[in-house]
Design brief:
With 146 residues, the chain is an alpha+beta fold. The protein folds into two domains: 56 residues, no CATH class; 82 residues, Jelly Rolls (Sandwich), CATH 2.60.120. It is built from two helices and ten strands.
Amino acid sequence: MATLIPIPSILTTEKYRHLALQALYQLASGSGSGGGSVTITGSLPAGSNLIGSVTSQVASGSITMSNSSVGTSSATLLAASSASKMLTIQNTSASNTLYVSTTSPATSTNGIAIGAGVGYQFPYIPTNALYCLGSAASTTYTIWYA
């Protein structure tokens, strides 16, 4: 049985909150070294089961959406520093592949290949320009960014 020693200051630090919650989940689910049980040492405040709090802030703002197409010559997909919060590209072509790159010109070997009907949400928002190339003429796509 794993024993957790409360360290309140580490849980209030944004940098470590995610790691602490992940460790608790692993212990409770049995995927960690604790064998599936969690013991909290120390007493809870009288009349409360509150151990701590987690706050979150909803992101809000405008999203720009654009539909376009590209052929077999590299073209600018998005100007530098246009997206700062989110970036998603959907290949809306029925059969063509869309190649997206951070270097110009985009080629079939220097970026990501997005298959027909597939979307890609960037886990990290690049500040440099994006370039694209279609595997055939009139490769259509939609881009959403904020």
